[in-house]
Structure formats: C-alpha cells, structure tokens
Give the backbone structure.
Amino acid sequence: MGKVYLDYAATTPAADEVLEAMHPFFQRDFGNPSSLHGFGQAARAAVEHGREDVAAFIGAGPEEIVFTSGGTESNNFAIKGVAWGNRKKGNHVVTTGIEHHGVLESCRLLEGQGFRVTYLPVDGRGLVDPGAVKKALTDETVLVSVMHGNNEIGTLQPIAQIGGITRERGIFFHTDAVQTFGHLPLKVDDLKVDLLSFSAHKFYGPKGVGGLYVRRGTRIEPHIHGGGQERGLRASTHNVPGIAGMGRAVLLAGRALNEEIEELTKLRNRLIGGVLERIDGVRVNGHREKRLPGLVHLSIDGVEGEALLLNLDLLGIACSTGSACSSTAVLPSHVLQAVGLSRKEIRGSIRFSLGRYTTAGDIDRVLEILPRIVKRLRDIPNDRGPEGD
C-alpha cells in the first residue's frame, strides 16, 4: 500500500499548478524586480500580481501586503516592528502562553530591551478569555498578539471579539494566521486585525515565502534593513518564483475552500470517532467544535508519542507528536503544559493533521493500524518506574 501523509500542519506539498506558475521565473523571466529593463519589469509584474491575489483573499489592499520569507519572519516583524515603532507611546505587549515560538521569542527579546510582556493563560481547551485580554490592557499597551488557530491542538481563538476590544482602545492587534490562511475564510475587516501573518507552504505553496498584512496607518519599524524593497519595510531581493507560486496557491485555496472545510471536518470526525471507539484511555485535546477542520491531537494512556510515531512511520503513516519530554535535552510542549496536561499525557500525545489529498481510505488505514500498535506498546513491560504528574 502507498504511504499516508497526515502531517499537513507541518507542511503541505506544492500543488502542480503552483509549480507551473513558478517555473517561468527560474529561467525565462528571471530578472530582478528592482531592475528597470524588460526582464526586471516582467518579474515585477509577477510580484504585484501575486500581491493582488493574496490581498483579495483577505479583503485587503495590495499595498497592505508585505512579502517575507515565511511565518516566523512575519511574526518577528509584527511583534518587534510594532513595539519598536510605538515605543514613545508605550512599552507593554499582551500575548498568550500558547503562541508560536516566533512570537514568544520575539517577546522575550523585547523584554530584554525594557518592554513588559503579559502572557495570558488559556483554559483546558486552549481558549483565551477575551475578558482577560481586556483586563490586561493598560495605557502603555501598544500591541496585542493572539494566534488564530493553534498548530498543536487546533483550537481557534475568538479573534474578532478580541479585535473589537483592541480597536476600542486604539491598540494594534496582530494574529498569527499561519495555520488558518488558505484553510478558513479570512477577512481582515471581519477579524478586526491590524496585522496578520501567513506562510505559503502551509497552503500548498512553496517553502521560503510568506507575508504580513499591515493595515494602513499601522506604525511599524522595519526589522531588515538594506534596499528599499516592499516600500522600505522589508529589504531583500524578492523571491519572485515563490511569490508567483504563493499567488497561485491562494487562488486554488479560494476556489475549493468550502468544499475542503466540509470534507476535512468529515474526515477529522471520522478519525476521532474511530479512535475513541477502538482504543480506551484516549483524550482528545483542544476545543471539540472551535478547531481547525483537519487537525486531531490525542493523548493515549500507556504509550509514548514518539514510539507511536516511529511505529506508524514504519508502516507508512506519517504524523507528529505534540512534543517529546523523554529527554532532558527536549522540553515538553509549552502548549500542552498551558492547557493543563500532565507529563504522562504529554508523553503520550500524537497529532494527525489532514489535508487536501487525505482520503477516507487513509483514515481507515490509521484506524486499522493504530489500535494494534497501541496494544503492542501497552503490552511491553514498563521498567521506567513511576511517572510524575
């Protein structure tokens, strides 16, 4: 049987149409978009066309899109750029404890520069309370950053509600939408965000390219200095093939959005229901309704996630763990800790993330193989001694 890929939250395969859109800009139209001759202007046209496609998907103006190398850079740019650009106004940032490391590490850097950062807790389902956001705001707050969809447990945050709170106070609001861009309907005005991060390889585009939506009037300081690309906000020669591919990926996502949401939700529920029916001692992590359509995160008693992953991989099924804590060199997942999982539950965690090419047959294969692996691992004598909570 063929291999089954269920790690779409980590990365997705580039669609055939995306590769076709990219191809001309490697050899035929290879010019530098900053050059004035014909080669350069052909490349420039591709960059601006991609910008228009991305902007249209989220209801933004093309001039509000800044191209980057991906989600991590976009998050860094948003956090540092807004904090630096508004330091005269205040030195306080509000975020949550389950953000992507690109946000958290940027916040820690700011703390070393004299900024104060509030890390809000989440409940056991991974939800942040908008009331807690409102309570955390002060006259010194310049930025709030809350991710849209969590990459580990799939919980979707009440972004529009939080955006309404920040807008009333005149505070800039950023959301990391890397996991939701191209997978859910996203309109920046509906979400009431001022900044939004995205990355092409999460929605069947190429790796190494992404962007940051920056609402008109948002005061932001560049974090990469050099030439005047991207209206002086982000120096570096444009990744023309990547931008062209991302633009095509956005178009493809928009055309199939509703159908994919419906199909992935159906397959996700099939997987969750099947696992709960066949295996005892399973906890489904994250919010059961407010979650990404194709993400399933489980904690399974009596096994280790790494062992599950390796055994599944040997049988042709690719997935991922929440985060290992079996070695002193590897820290437990900060997300799973934040939602209150014990060390034992974190050790037994595994993530299946479904995508465009996932089939019912793929899900059935997991449901056939996973219970056998769990039983075999549970039958192995455990001489490690008692586990801490």
Observations:
- Residues 240-278 form the longest helix (39 residues).
- The chain is about 40% helix and 15% strand.
- Residues 303 and 376 are 9 Å apart (CA to CA).
- The first strand starts at residue 4 and ends at 5.
